Amino acid sequence: MLKIARIVIVALCCILICVLGTIYSFICFRNPSNVGIMARWFGRLFPLFGLNVEHRFPQNKENMPRCIYIGNHQNNFDMVTISYMVLPRTVSVGKKSLIWIPFFGILYWVTGNIFLDRENRSKAHSTMTELARRINKDNLSIWMFPEGTRSRGRGLLPFKTGAFHAAIAAGVPIVPVVCSTTHNKIDLNRWDNGKVICEMMDPIDVSSYTKDNVRELASYCHDLMEKRIAELDAEIAQGK
Question: What pTM was computed for the model?
Answer without folding.
Answer: 0.92
